[in-house]
Amino acid sequence: MANIAIIDDEAPILELIGQVGRRMGHDVFLFQTGRDGLLGLERLRPELLIVDLRIPDLNGLQIIQECRQKYPLTQVVMVTGYGSVETAVEAMKLGAFDYLTKPFELDDLQRIMQRALHSSGAPPALPSPSLPLPPPSAFIGESPQMKEILKLVQKVADKDSPVLLEGEFGSGKQMVARTLHNHSRRHRAPFKVLHCSALSEALLEQELFGGPGGAPTIFQRAQGGTVVLEEINVLPPRLQSVLDSFLEDLNLRRLNGTLPAQLDFRFLATSSKPLEQLVRDGAFREDLYYRVSVIPMLIPPLRSRREDIPPLVAHFLSNYSRLTASPLKEVDKYAARLLHDYHWPGNVGELQNAIERGCSFADDKRLRPIDLPPKITQKVEVTDDENHKLRHTLPIGTPLGDFIKKQERLFIRETLKYNEGSREKTSSMLGVSIATLYRKMGLKLDRDKMIG
């Protein structure tokens, strides 16, 4: 049994991490301020410290630095948001054992805690049966497209071939990557994600290939597991070359049976832009493209698989309830219709944010249209450029082509009324042919009657 200290100013996250530690059979001590946490370190001398980067009264890096200086036997894991990954890499330079990026999976947290405690020399503890650990995120998708992707995932999950996941921002590429890992023989080993767009070139190189200080690379920390290189399309050209050579060397070692254990991992990559097009444009190395795209998967945008919206909404509602320890909410039929009809330019990520906002605004257990972001309710009012007293309601989130077609039909309909239903006068007034008028109205042209 070990002592685990956790410092985080968000009470739900603090308690959630604490539950994982208690479930593992360890003594857990929770602190909501950095100063209280430092006093706790002095008193407890814990084997493991888990600290959030952003704490109002103290910087997480300060806490790590002081902990490593005064209590060198304490292993430190930093928790950080996506936008602070660069600082988390700095924490590794200061001696942190590893870092987790929010939102994280609880099974990833448990694995890192186990590895850190093992490294500290803490004796193993008997797990507590009273606090079940939630399962890792499941594959969410009821649409035919996502069911086909799931079939492919199940077919290739246990292979070691690199997989390239392409699709728009927020389309669910990391969810598919996670499912590949969860269905593989590597599912008990680490699942590591590195965002290429979140780090400077120097820190990105250090995370991938090592640097001064000897901190372990992401590949070494993922020993036996899976590494996901997110947004590989923004990888600088020089690092593209280094990565290509690195992966080629790993492949040769794997074929020769000389691959060291610390470099045994499955490599996945994601891209929000088609890499093949970037290769044609000279923006991405052709040899690296073929190396990382042995098994390509294209994740469709949410707007083309609306059957997935209800299960995703249910998943996000459940997550919000669990993380905030609040009653589970539901969506009324009018809000559900708006969620279904919205275009979702931000895909699954935008849907998740909309549900979180709705849960925060809802007065009771039900989300209503008024609780959703204004752009989803499609009631954004703007002032006319020529007549400032005139205001328009614009359906933000609707595809431009759909909006133009709707406006054309409305204009044609009102012009027809003005001409008392005469299609000849209307076509002449609008400056289009009868055939064009019929096509824009969605009607079939009777050419026999026209000839007659």
Compute the number of structural domains: 4
Number of strands: 16
Q: Specify the CATH homologous superfamily of the largest domain.
A: P-loop containing nucleotide triphosphate hydrolases
Helix content: 40-55%
**Low-confidence sequence ranges:** 128-135, 447-452
Mass-distribution shape:
globular
- N-end to C-end Cα span: 94 Å
How large, in whole angstroms, is the Cα Rg? 27 Å
Number of helices: 20
Reported CATH architecture of the largest domain: 3-Layer(aba) Sandwich
List keywords for this structure.
alpha/beta, globular, Rossmann fold, five-stranded parallel sheet, 14% strand, 20 helices, Helicase, Ruva Protein, domain 3, single chain, 452 residues, 4 domains, disordered C terminus
Explain what you see.
This protein is an alpha/beta fold. The protein has four domains: 1-128, 3-Layer(aba) Sandwich (Rossmann fold); 137-300, P-loop containing nucleotide triphosphate hydrolases (Rossmann fold), CATH 3.40.50.300; 302-377, Helicase, Ruva Protein, domain 3; 399-451, Arc Repressor Mutant, subunit A (Orthogonal Bundle), CATH 1.10.10. It contains 20 helices and 16 strands. It has helices at residues 11-23, 34-44, 60-70, 85-93, 106-120, 144-156, 173-182, 201-209, 218-221, 237-256, 275-280, 286-292, 309-324, 333-341, 347-361, 374-377, 400-418, 423-430, 434-441, 447-451; strands spanning 3-7, 27-31, 48-52, 54-55, 58-59, 75-80, 98-101, 163-166, 191-195, 226-230, 266-271, 295-298, 330-331, 366-367, 380-383, 391-394. The strands form five sheets. It has a five-stranded parallel β-sheet with strand order 2-1-3-6-7, with helices on both faces. Strands 9-10-11-8-12 form a five-stranded parallel β-sheet. A two-stranded antiparallel sheet has the order 4-5. Helix 13 crosses helix 15 (347-361). It is globular, with a radius of gyration of 27 Å. Residues 128-135 and 447-452 have low confidence and may be disordered.
